[in-house]
């Protein structure tokens, strides 16, 4: 019988110097990005961030069925489903994403929802 | 352990889909994104690094836009700000709606900071950056499972940095390319000892390849346009084109025998034309004379708008590789003893059984001194010997005497080589003076190059062989010269006759002289040489030295001086790995003690003092007295009358030359002209003066400046040789003027940092030397510091106008680090 030897997960050994150097580079790219945008964007953009509610109509039932079919195992109790709105050219589309329940993004929504309910 | 390693190996060999992480090969669509700039895919695992592969790539390559895979949850989607369309992932983050389970990407500058959004239904307080903890948000781009990661290629942070660096020049390179020698990793360095000749070949083979590739790249990139050509016809009725070929510091200098292609693009009355030719000489006016191979259709009524390319030849590198292979596969290539010594193995000392001659000098040569006699005597008894010949110590005479005695032992023909043609010619001449029959074998490409020993060359001897049975060859030769070509039947006959004659002449010689590379000439195929002498061997690379040795060597004499300049290696990587170390040097490191010639006949005793003490442990003796080096009738302002030397303090600034690749120093150039003019006025001939400067920029500037400013006849200045240290190696002049050029606070002194180069520069002069330089800068280097101190102690450190030189009080700097003697 074939013996399968599975290697133990290697303890990641990261050279602290390498890590520090990478961190510096990353920060530099971030900072450079912010700075260049500050220079580049003279006029403040107009905002068009209305949530396109029409996209969600009747979505709840629909979602369920899709999840069932695809057998996406992530849709368990630790995740919540959110809708991501993306633009394809001028068209808006929504897609579903499962994000961890403990994500700050979800937390804030839930808290707000709760707070609003209490009022 | 092993099983997993094999797995990851298999993984890299299999054909991976296009969308595989370029670092690790993972290709699960949920785990990867494509960089929109370079179109490469990367995964979101960290592997062995602190950031995920995609973040590593974006940061290292400074790329900022990505796209998700079509089979990912969001489908093929370029990540961008929902409001303004900004695609810089380093600015993007998610925000969620206050009431709905809706999220969008928003950039933090400016959209997140726009006040108007506050009124809307979005919660801006919880903006979550897309790249968090050096990783893409794992719920947007999944992190591959542990299982997936284990099967993937393990890539280190260093490899990532290397491959990213490589992609900048070759975007399609793979990680496998990193392992290829010559692309990124430093090649395996040379060793002191080798197990066997295959290992030797495995080390030197790649180094020779590196140098060959670099040489090819350099030469082929040196095409020049707008060349103005002057036409002439040679004695052999061949067309000769004369033109100036501009060059720069780090470029190769042309030498006779080089092959160039001359091109004319064509015009309304001429069709496009090109022809290959050989450089037959370089004139004093810095013109190149190119003898064209084809005489037909040459546009000789045109002079402008020509282009010149180098024609690169792999011959010399091929011969080195072949010699290494021969050493490995053919046990008769060298004697067993020499085989083991070359590879650094411990072997019991061996003596050559021979009857020593009664006197060690040779007819036609000057008498030998004690150290020269000692050298000849001990060389004759040993299978491997090294002779170190410091400047002016009679290396060539000693070598010629050795060859004379070797040839007299009747062990077959003696092979005599050197890396340079000049050295081979000198030696051939001296050996011929002893009465031995010498054949100088020249490369075919150099047959038209004039040589002081033309009568010894094989091609000359073939042409002038005066026997009746050679008349057929002569007839065909005449016909060929006349018509330019022969019928194919005649050509065949001509070639066969010529080959037979060449062989006959070469076989009848006592000594064959050629360059090291020339020893690989097909005309020497099937020749065997038991005794080989290599002069200037410290200027040859090991594989180059091997070419003459693998023709059956049993007794080897290497002559040279490892305290002077070594072989010129153009490829830095190959030089760093040790290709610049000669076989002579390695044998010294292995404990072979060189026999040193110790009496110098060149320099005025005060000129030899510093080199002797600093490069030869004070062992150099003067075979020449001050009286023999008196400059009678020459009225030159030496600060100390019987010390024909001074260091002339210069504070002028260095400048970058017009080409941008070299340096010049106007003040030094101006003073060089004044010194030269003073010498000339007092009766010194131009041919007695040499101006040495390490920079091409300064060399060109001095040549130009002298002929423009010099108060004497222009032709006098034009005859003065102004050249680099390297091109003065092996030669001498009565008076040397050395212009150091570099004069800056913070950068180095460049070329002058090499002690061996300083040694060469200081040991060219017979009667007198003037050094121009900035002591403040030069004194930082320990060796220069002691040179300056030496000049100062002898009251030869001066400043002021040439007709009123005064002792300089300039302060030296503390030398930086201890000078390492090599
Ligand atoms: Zn990229
Ligand atoms: Zn990866
Ligand atoms: Zn934006």
Average pLDDT level of chain B? 87
How many helices of chain B? The count is 25
Coarse shape of chain B: globular
Estimate what percentage of residues of chain A fall within beta strands: 15-25%
Radius of gyration of chain A: 22 Å
**Helix percentage of chain B:** 25-40%
Helix/strand-derived class of chain A?
alpha+beta
Low-confidence stretches of chain B: 1-14
Poorly predicted ranges of chain A: 1-11, 59-75
Report mean pLDDT of chain A, rounded to a whole number. 65
Helix-strand makeup class of chain B: alpha/beta
Give the CATH topology of the largest domain in chain B: Rossmann fold
C-alpha Rg of chain B, in Å? 34 Å
What does this molecule look like?
The complex is a heterodimer of chains A (119) and B (822). Chain A has three helices and two strands; from the N terminus they run ααββα. Chain A has 119 residues and is an alpha+beta fold. Chain A has a domain at 53-118. A two-stranded antiparallel ribbon of chain A has the order 1-2. The longest helix of chain A is centred in the first third of the chain and has 25 residues, at 16-40. The radius of gyration of chain A is 22 Å and the shape is flat. Residues 1-11 and 59-75 of chain A have low confidence and may be disordered. Chain B is of the alpha/beta class and 822 residues long. Chain B folds into four domains: 2-79 and 130-179, no CATH class; 229-303, Elongation Factor Tu (Ef-tu), domain 3 (Beta Barrel); 331-597, P-loop containing nucleotide triphosphate hydrolases (Rossmann fold, 3-Layer(aba) Sandwich); 605-807, Rossmann fold (3-Layer(aba) Sandwich), CATH 3.40.50. Chain B has 25 helices and 33 strands. Chain B has a seven-stranded antiparallel beta sheet, with no helix packed on it. A seven-stranded parallel beta sheet of chain B has the order 18-19-17-20-21-16-22, with helices on both faces. A seven-stranded mixed beta sheet of chain B has the order 29-28-30-31-25-32-33. At the A-B interface, α1, β1, β2 and α3 of A face α1, α2, β4, β5 and β6 of B. β1 of chain A pairs parallel with β5 (102-107) of chain B, so a sheet runs across the interface. The complex binds zinc ion (3 copies).
């Amino acid at each position: 019988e074939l013996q399968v030897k599975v290697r133990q997960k290697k303890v990641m050994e990261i050279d602290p110097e390498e890590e520090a150097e990478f961190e510096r580079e990353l920060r530099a790219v971030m900072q450079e990005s912010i700075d260049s945008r500050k220079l580049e964007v003279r006029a403040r953009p107009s905002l068009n961030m209305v949530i396109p509610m029409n996209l969600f109509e009747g979505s709840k039932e629909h979602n369920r069925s899709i999840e069932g079919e695809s057998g996406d195992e992530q849709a368990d109790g630790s995740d919540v489903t959110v809708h991501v709105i993306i633009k394809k050219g001028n068209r808006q589309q929504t897609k579903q994403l499962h994000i961890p329940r403990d994500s700050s993004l979800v937390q804030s929504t839930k808290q707000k929802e709760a707070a609003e309910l209490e009022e | 352990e092993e099983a997993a390693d094999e797995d990851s190996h298999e993984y890299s060999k299999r054909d991976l889909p296009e969308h595989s992480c370029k670092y690790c090969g993972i290709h699960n669509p949920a785990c990867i994104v494509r960089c929109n700039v370079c179109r490469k895919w990367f995964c979101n695992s960290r592997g062995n690094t602190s950031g995920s592969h995609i973040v590593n790539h974006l940061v290292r390559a400074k790329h900022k836009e990505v796209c998700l895979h079509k089979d990912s949850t969001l489908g093929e989607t370029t990540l961008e700000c929902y409001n303004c369309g900004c695609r810089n992932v380093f600015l993007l983050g998610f925000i969620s709606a206050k009431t709905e389970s809706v999220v969008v990407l928003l950039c933090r500058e400016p959209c997140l900071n726009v006040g108007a959004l506050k009124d809307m239904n979005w919660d801006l307080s919880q903006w979550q950056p897309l790249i968090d903890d050096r990783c893409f948000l794992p719920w947007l781009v999944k992190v591959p499972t542990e299982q997936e990661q284990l099967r993937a290629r393990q890539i280190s942070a260093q490899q990532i940095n290397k491959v990213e660096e490589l992609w900048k020049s070759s975007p399609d390179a793979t990680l496998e390319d990193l392992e290829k020698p010559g692309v990124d990793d430093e090649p395996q360095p040379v060793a002191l000892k080798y197990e066997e000749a295959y290992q030797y070949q495995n080390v030197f083979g790649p180094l020779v390849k590196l140098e060959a590739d670099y040489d090819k790249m350099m030469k082929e990139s040196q095409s020049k346009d707008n060349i103005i050509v002057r036409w002439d016809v040679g004695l052999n009725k061949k067309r000769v084109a004369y033109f100036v070929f501009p060059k720069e510091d780090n470029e190769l200098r042309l030498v006779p025998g080089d092959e160039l292609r001359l091109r004319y693009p064509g015009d309304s009355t001429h069709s496009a034309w090109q022809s290959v030719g050989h450089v037959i000489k370089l004139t004093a006016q810095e013109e190149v004379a190119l003898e064209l191979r084809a005489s037909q259709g040459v546009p000789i009524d045109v002079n402008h708008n020509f282009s010149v390319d180098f024609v690169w030849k792999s011959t010399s590198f091929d011969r080195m590789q072949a010699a290494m292979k021969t050493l490995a596969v053919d046990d008769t290539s060298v004697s067993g003893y020499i085989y083991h010594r070359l590879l650094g193995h411990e072997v019991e000392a061996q003596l050559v059984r021979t009857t020593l001659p009664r006197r060690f000098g040779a007819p036609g040569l000057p008498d030998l001194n004690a150290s020269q006699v000692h050298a000849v005597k001990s060389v004759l008894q040993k299978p491997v010997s090294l002779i170190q010949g410091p400047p002016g110590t009679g290396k060539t005479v000693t070598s010629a005497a050795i060859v004379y005695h070797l040839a007299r032992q009747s062990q077959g023909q003696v092979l005599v080589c050197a890396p340079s043609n000049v050295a081979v010619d000198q030696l051939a001449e001296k050996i011929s003076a002893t009465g031995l029959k010498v054949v100088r074998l020249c490369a075919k490409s150099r047959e038209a190059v004039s040589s002081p020993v033309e009568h010894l060359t094989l091609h000359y001897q073939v042409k002038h062989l005066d026997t009746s049975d050679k008349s057929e060859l002569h007839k065909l030769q005449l016909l060929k010269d006349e018509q330019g070509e022969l019928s194919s039947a005649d050509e065949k006959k001509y070639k066969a006759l010529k080959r037979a004659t060449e062989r006959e002449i070469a076989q009848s010689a006592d000594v064959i002289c050629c360059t090291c590379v020339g020893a690989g000439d097909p005309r020497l195929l099937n020749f065997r040489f038991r005794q080989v002498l290599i002069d200037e061997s410290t200027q040859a690379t090991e594989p180059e030295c091997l070419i003459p040795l693998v023709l059956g060597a049993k007794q080897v004499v290497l002559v040279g001086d490892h305290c002077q300049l070594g072989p010129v290696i153009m490829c830095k990587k190959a030089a760093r790995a040790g290709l610049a170390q000669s076989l002579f040097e390695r044998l010294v490191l292995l404990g072979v003690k060189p026999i040193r010639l110790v009496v110098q006949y060149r320099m005025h005793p005060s000129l030899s003092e510093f080199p002797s003490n600093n490069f030869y442990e004070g062992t150099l003796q003067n075979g020449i007295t001050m009286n023999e080096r008196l400059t009678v009738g020459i009225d030159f302002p030496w600060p100390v009358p019987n010390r024909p030397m001074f260091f002339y303090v210069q504070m002028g600034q260095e400048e970058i030359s017009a080409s941008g690749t070299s340096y010049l120093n106007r003040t030094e150039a101006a003073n060089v002209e004044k010194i030269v003019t003073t010498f000339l006025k007092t009766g010194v001939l131009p041919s007695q003066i040499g101006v040495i400067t390490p920079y091409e920029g300064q060399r060109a500037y001095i040549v130009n400046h002298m002929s423009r400013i010099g108060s004497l006849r222009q032709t006098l200045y034009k005859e003065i040789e102004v050249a680099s240290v390297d091109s003065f190696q092996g030669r001498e002049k009565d008076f040397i003027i050395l212009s150091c050029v570099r004069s800056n606070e913070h950068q180095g002194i460049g070329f002058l940092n090499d002690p061996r180069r300083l040694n060469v520069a200081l040991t060219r002069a017979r009667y007198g030397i003037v050094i121009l330089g900035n002591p403040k800068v030069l004194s930082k280097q320990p060796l220069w510091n002691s040179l300056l101190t030496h000049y100062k102690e002898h009251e030869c450190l001066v400043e002021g106008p040439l007709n009123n030189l005064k002792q300089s009080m300039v302060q030296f700097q503390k030398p930086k680090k201890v000078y390492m003697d090599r």
